[in-house]
Amino acid sequence: MVGTTPSGTPKENLGHVVFITAAAAIGGFLFGYDSAVINGAVTGIQKHFQVGPVQIGFVVAIALLGSALGAWIAGRIADRWGRTRTMQVAALLFAVSSLGQALPFAIWDLALWRVLAGVGIGMASVIGPAYIAEVAPPAYRGRLGSFQQLAIVLGIAVSQLVNFAIAQLAGGDVNNRLLGLQAWQWMLGACLVPALLYLLFSTIIPESPRFLVAIGRTEMARRVLKEVEGERTDLEERLKEIQASLRLEHRPRLSDLRGPAFGLLPIVWIGILLSVFQQFVGINVIFYYSASLWQSVGINQSDSLLISFSTSIINIVGTFIAIALVDRIGRRPLLLIGSAGMAVALAVAAWAFSAGVHIGDTVRLPSAQGTVALVAAHVFVLFFALSWGVVVWVLLGEMFPNRIRAAALSVAAAAQWVANWLITVSFPSLAEWSLAGAYVGYAFFAVLSFFFVLFKVRETKGRKLEEMG
């Protein structure tokens, strides 16, 4: 007798779904790696090109504008060329931009390559959740959708570990040379390896059954559904459900998102605000600037890279907690728990940073406050990872009606990247003005996010995509 899961999906089929989900989530790994690798390279870039905090903030943040563009166009590309072909385009962008970032001849040249990398990141941020939501059985969609965020946090962690290892090989200084290049150049170029793996796996996994139905390839869609949901599923009924949801559908356009709420449908605004709150709590300050932040409060370069890696490990732990809980207790409870925990941790961090004393051009924290700041930063990352880090991506992949999913997800993801850019580009100046003040602001948005979820976000646990709307 064939073993089954509690939902009735044969175990071997679930194993296949896990494989293709993990393969698709390599885009999330690249997303995390390419986003966070700059953390270890910031100091090296600044010294090599002799630029100040405004210029370095621009170079770090400009990739996010590329990400907004990539997210904006990904939905239309995915609906025209297919989900897997879009993954292949993103993989090529990752590969080419990695080489370019490793071999820049000027600061503006590096910035251009980072924009190209950002386009790949933005495309991966859209296509991963959409594809996984479309191939996952409803009973497991939350956990499988969490693979995207798990891949992102693994990418972040690996980037910090690679940065630390390269810095150690280069004698602890990212401007030292290693096999003809400075260490920071190797950090930025190492993304080539996972980019090529992503390209390989995106040619192996099947196309989304919903896209296949949309373009009239029903027989192939039936085969894919059989692969992912098993023979015991009524395949004809599933095809009818998909066809019914797509029957009145035309290719999603931005005009389809228009509605009475300030020009957009209310569900689109909810997606946009989920994305904005996910960034306005300041999570990427930790992953883009933590190495230089900890150096600024008296920790040496090598140890600061190690601390950055430790926060990445906490990020992974929190993500596993979210994967275990997202289909059990639901999306909304996790978001509420996360908002409350982040608000407290950020407020404590703000208090610790308020004790900073200026010594020359740097800030130093008393020993007790320094320890509190480190602990608070790790607690903040934990609560983010077990809630907003995972759940927002799950919700964005499943909360929109089929007829507008790709277009709405593109807009929400683009908003996320613009919000990320605003936080990233503003942090160096805010930190120079008042590091404590910056963290008070992030705590304020964490509090707002709690009430937004409480009053505006609906639960989607266990519902079929065809029922969304």
Automatic annotation (TrEMBL):
<dbReference type="InterPro" id="IPR047984">
    <property type="entry name" value="XylE-like"/>
</dbReference>
<feature type="transmembrane region" description="Helical">
    <location>
        <begin position="373"/>
        <end position="396"/>
    </location>
</feature>
<dbReference type="Pfam" id="PF00083">
    <property type="entry name" value="Sugar_tr"/>
</dbReference>
<keyword id="KW-0175">Coiled coil</keyword>
<keyword id="KW-1003">Cell membrane</keyword>
<dbReference type="InterPro" id="IPR020846">
    <property type="entry name" value="MFS_dom"/>
</dbReference>
<dbReference type="InterPro" id="IPR005828">
    <property type="entry name" value="MFS_sugar_transport-like"/>
</dbReference>
<keyword id="KW-0813">Transport</keyword>
<feature type="transmembrane region" description="Helical">
    <location>
        <begin position="53"/>
        <end position="75"/>
    </location>
</feature>
<feature type="transmembrane region" description="Helical">
    <location>
        <begin position="113"/>
        <end position="132"/>
    </location>
</feature>
<feature type="transmembrane region" description="Helical">
    <location>
        <begin position="183"/>
        <end position="201"/>
    </location>
</feature>
<keyword id="KW-1133">Transmembrane helix</keyword>
<keyword id="KW-0472">Membrane</keyword>
<feature type="transmembrane region" description="Helical">
    <location>
        <begin position="87"/>
        <end position="107"/>
    </location>
</feature>
<feature type="transmembrane region" description="Helical">
    <location>
        <begin position="261"/>
        <end position="287"/>
    </location>
</feature>
<feature type="transmembrane region" description="Helical">
    <location>
        <begin position="333"/>
        <end position="353"/>
    </location>
</feature>
<feature type="transmembrane region" description="Helical">
    <location>
        <begin position="152"/>
        <end position="171"/>
    </location>
</feature>
<feature type="transmembrane region" description="Helical">
    <location>
        <begin position="408"/>
        <end position="427"/>
    </location>
</feature>
<feature type="coiled-coil region">
    <location>
        <begin position="218"/>
        <end position="245"/>
    </location>
</feature>
<keyword id="KW-0812">Transmembrane</keyword>
<feature type="transmembrane region" description="Helical">
    <location>
        <begin position="307"/>
        <end position="326"/>
    </location>
</feature>
<feature type="transmembrane region" description="Helical">
    <location>
        <begin position="14"/>
        <end position="33"/>
    </location>
</feature>
<dbReference type="InterPro" id="IPR005829">
    <property type="entry name" value="Sugar_transporter_CS"/>
</dbReference>
<comment type="similarity">
    <text>Belongs to the major facilitator superfamily. Sugar transporter (TC 2.A.1.1) family.</text>
</comment>
<dbReference type="InterPro" id="IPR003663">
    <property type="entry name" value="Sugar/inositol_transpt"/>
</dbReference>
<feature type="transmembrane region" description="Helical">
    <location>
        <begin position="433"/>
        <end position="455"/>
    </location>
</feature>
<feature type="domain" description="Major facilitator superfamily (MFS) profile">
    <location>
        <begin position="20"/>
        <end position="461"/>
    </location>
</feature>
<protein>
    <submittedName>
        <fullName>Sugar porter family MFS transporter</fullName>
    </submittedName>
</protein>
<dbReference type="InterPro" id="IPR050814">
    <property type="entry name" value="Myo-inositol_Transporter"/>
</dbReference>
<dbReference type="InterPro" id="IPR036259">
    <property type="entry name" value="MFS_trans_sf"/>
</dbReference>
